[in-house]
Each structure stands twice: as C-alpha cells, then as structure tokens.
C-alpha cells in the first residue's frame, strides 16, 4: 500500500514565462537597434550566424525576488510568484559598442517601462500551434514583464570563420517577471454538522 497526500493528481497550469519574456525583450531590442540588425535567440542548433551585425539573447538566471502568495477560486489554488530574470545580450559586428550604449541607456530609462507595458497590452495571445506557448485561460494569466536595470558593458574577443577579429560586446539585462501558477483545489460547497457525545466512557466527566 502506498500512502498519498490525499490530493488528486492533475496537471499544473503554468503560463509560458520564458517565451513571453524573450518575445517582449526581442521587441524592445528591435525597436532600439538599427533596422538591419537581426535579434536571435542564442544556443540553437543548426543556426548559422547572419552576415553583418546581429544580436543574440540568452536567458541566464531565474531568481525569486519575493515569497510567493496564494489565492483561491472555487476550483483552483493560484500561486503568485515574482522572479528576477537575467538575460545576456551579445552584440556582434561593426557598431556593436554604439548599439550596446543605445540598449543600456534606454533600458534604464522610463521609456523602457512604457514600452514593455504598451507591448504587452497590444500583443496577441500566443498561437496554439507555437511550440513554446500554450493558450492561456485569461489575460490575467499572461506574465507581466518589467525592466529592472542593466549591468556593465563588456568587450569580449570574437574570431569569425575567416580567423578575423570582430567587434563583440555583451551586457546583462535584468527584468522582473510576475506570473501565476494554477493548481486544482478540492473545495466543499456545504458542510453537515453531527453532534457527538463528549462524556467519558465511565459516564459524566470527573470534577
């Protein structure tokens, strides 16, 4: 016999936090960088580097910034979590240093907060066919993304396929992602009270 917790087994509903974050950040970078600079997700297989300047994003760290909170509905338990997410942005090619200064300046300005808010309000819901997304139950389930701060800019060596040095600059962007995780919750819509005799087995309680 296996002892269980008594909770029914069911899938946990979690919105696509990483997909929502990288989509919003990519839109920000495309708005800031020159129009001929593509922005790609790093660490993908069989993806050749573009010709000319380009940018890569790599998610480095998810770290909780507050204790999770819990609220309940008639059928579910909803756990609210806030995380700090660190994304490394690498810029390659001619003008990489200037492009990085654009990102660093605007990311730490109120303009970035307004951009992320407007983008999330106007962005369509993820398509059901998208490999990294699923349909969300309601707009309230969409993760909320906000910029926090940018780290220091740093230059790193980069040698291309022709064994030539190219410009390569990196910066870590820190964002806050607020999301909700839903679990099924057993609830009772009514209760029935039964009176029980609390006297001892010998009769009335002793004085």
Provide a descriptive summary of the structure in words:
The chain has a domain at 17-64 and 81-175: STM4215-like, CATH 3.30.2000. Helix 1 (17-32) packs across helix 3 (110-122). It starts with 16 loop residues before the first helix and ends in a 23-residue tail after the last strand. Strands 1, 2, 3, 4, 5, 6 and 7 form a seven-stranded mixed β-sheet that branches. The protein is α+β, with helices and mostly antiparallel strands. The chain is built from three helices and seven strands. Strand 3 and strand 4 form a beta hairpin. The longest helix has 16 residues, at 17-32.
Topology:
Elements: H1 17-32, E1 39-41, E2 54-64, E3 69-72, E4 76-92, H2 96-107, H3 110-122, E5 144-150, E6 154-155, E7 168-184
Parallel strand pairs: 1-2
Antiparallel strand pairs: 2-4, 3-4, 4-7, 5-7, 6-7
Helix pairs in contact: 1-3
